[in-house]
Amino acid sequence: MFYVIQYQPLRLIAQNNLTSMYLKQMLSRHVQFGQIWKSWFSSHSLVGNKNIILMGPPGAGKTTIGRIVGQKLDCPVIDIDDDVLETTWNMTVSEKLQDVGNKQFLEEEGKALLKFSASGSVISLTGSNPMHAASMQHVKKNGIVVYLDVPTAVIMSRLKSMKVDRIVGQSPGISLHDILQFRKQFYKRWHDIRVLCGGDVTPEVIAEKVLDAVKRYQNSELETFISTRSSRSGRSMEKESLKYFSDVVTEGLAPDRGLFVPERGLPKFTAGEWQSLIGATYIERAQVILERCIHPADIPASKLGEIIETAYGENFTCSKIAPVRHLAGNQFLLELFHGPTASFKDFALQIVPHIFAYCIPKSCNYLVLVATSGDTGSAVLDGFSRLHDTDKQRIAVMNFFPEDGVSPIQKSQMIGCQKENAWSVGVKSDFDFCQTAIKQIFTNSDYTGFLTVEYGTALAAANSINWARLLPQIVYHASAYLDLVHQDIIPFGSPVDVCIPTGNFGNILSALYAKMMGIPIRKCICASNENNVLTDFVRTGVYDLRERKLIPTSSPAVDILKSSNLERYLHLIANEDGQLVTQLYNQLENQGYFQLQKDLLEKLQQDLVGGWCSEEDCLAAIHSVYSTTGYILDTHTAVAKVVADRLQDRTCPIIISSTAHYSKFAPAILRALKIAEINQNPLSQLHLLNSYSPLPPVHWGLLETLKRKGNDDHQVCAADMSMLMSHIETLIQNHFM
């Protein structure tokens, strides 16, 4: 336990002339804004009889901001230090510390808070209140807890200026910084709302942010979802027809075959808010960003934090989760392969299963369907197999993959990742057939209704058509930029380009979303292999599948002709014109192509640049990079590297998404490195690669998966819808009945 020795009181009191003058100045500037908020709350109610409870580290400004918020709302303001502790103890906090000693102080503070009650007030807690569980449970019952999240460096500076140079409990070898970091776990545990507070933000602005956050907390109807194919006139405003985050997670695909998107768009972060995350860990960044994208009515902040910790805490081989590595010149690699199945899909699919389990009704069984071009399958199987046993009894997953359209190691991995609630089925066709089949199954109301009535089982999707899949990907694009700033490569605000190997358009769409949210991304470079339909589309505005046949390559995640998430981007640049999106995709389905209007193509080309790479150039890039740096690119990253070399203008850094570990594509890598004898056994291939002491090392998770017995045991299905549906029914009967 740690406590604060207040050599000068942390709360802002009139005896401090500088603070008093500052407070009076701030309060005088709030009259007009305060009247607006009083008017809003008079008609919408503050929080009924509940309190707004401000929580944060010592020096966060809780007292000052509490007074400003109270004045705006014309409601009582209670400072726990002044109005509860010192009144209860009849002595100052410093005197109490001297009287009872460090170890007893927190308990005495908690006892005082347990006897306290209030309603309809703004309450400023002490920095140490959240460390006493019983008293926090007591005050939280009748309040909304707002965490004033101030960067530790800013707090350190403030404490120094306030002449607070030591935290109680501090001993030799333990820094003030470490103790402040230690306390964060308690703030994370109790908060309902987080307000980011940068170093240069005035108390006035923070008070406004607190009120905005409370308003959002109270009104989940501000964050509803629509289909990319819904018309404005056709959108029902009836409350029972609104779609929330929990709904779109479980439903996956909209009834009209469109994709769900947030009706009011994604949240925007200020430059100061992004800058407050520069020194944060990946997990901390993820929680802040996802809290703003997921309403607490769907997943409370504390539960979301638990999910993120579970997903990224121990399952990734690198402590930085998504490290950024300098490659050469102005090129940097965003390494997205440190998860358990060695691809970028792990970032979403270690989180989504837990989100899904939390959001779905407890009274129904769910079968999650997924189509994969290679990496998604093993990531889905691994993610859902890590659920708690009780959740695995009611949630199963079936993965369809092109039997002859993935690498041998990818196939072995998908089969090896099968568990009691997770199965793989090879389909004698390509990825586009698998993905289209799943979409048709979801929109076949007779079939889905039959499964619900006959077996009590609903279907759900885990492909990137599911909105929840995209959100964790926004995090790593934002985090990569912040890492470059943290490493002093660029100052905040300087632009970067990103180059992403692109198949289903989900990863590059997430980068575009990060840009919309305030990350200074200049251009997103869309890198294709010989299946270059997206390159042609970005350059011409014509999406043309006529007379195109899928070309199998060594970068199978890009072997896609129908890019599902492109629909979300077109809906965005078309100003949410669902009728236009419907028209385009009906034409694509019926005639095999569509063409964008000139104004939409111009909008698209402001964001995107497209290029493609041949198989020969892909393998040559792997060889070249290894020869000059000792680093091995996987085949998808090599595609992006070739395209980046061709299209970047070298006026700013470029971040290349390294979307998979080279171990997954060992035969192609061995060919690229001109190693003559290649054993056909996947495990032998990895051992051969490992003998070269490569950088980065061979992925441990792949080695472990390939060592498991039974890696040839899986079902194979013809490219026939009725056969796929038969497999689904059989699985349901075996697992749920």
The number of distinct structural domains comes to: 3
Biggest sheet overview: 6 strands, mixed
- Mind telling me the CATH class of the largest domain? Alpha Beta
Portion of residues in beta strands equals 5-15%
Which fold name fills CATH's third level, the topology of the largest domain?
Answer: Rossmann fold
What is the typical, i.e. mean, pLDDT?
Answer: 88
User: Using only CA atoms, what is the Rg?
Assistant: 27 Å
- Low-pLDDT stretches are 1-44
User: Overall 3D geometry?
Assistant: globular
Helical run tally: 33
Oligomeric composition of the shown chains = single chain
Strand order of the largest sheet: 10-11-21-16-17-20
Task: Give helix % range.
Answer: 40-55%
What is the CA–CA distance across the termini?
50 Å
Q: What class would the helix/strand composition place it in?
A: alpha/beta
CATH architectural name of the largest domain: 3-Layer(aba) Sandwich
Can you count the beta strands?
A: 22
Concise synopsis of the structure shown:
With 737 residues, the chain is α/β, with parallel strands linked by helices. The protein is built from 33 helices and 22 strands. The strands form six sheets. It has a six-stranded mixed beta sheet with strand order 10-11-21-16-17-20, with helices on both faces. It has a five-stranded parallel beta sheet with strand order 3-4-2-5-7, sandwiched between helices. A five-stranded parallel beta sheet has the order 15-12-13-14-22.
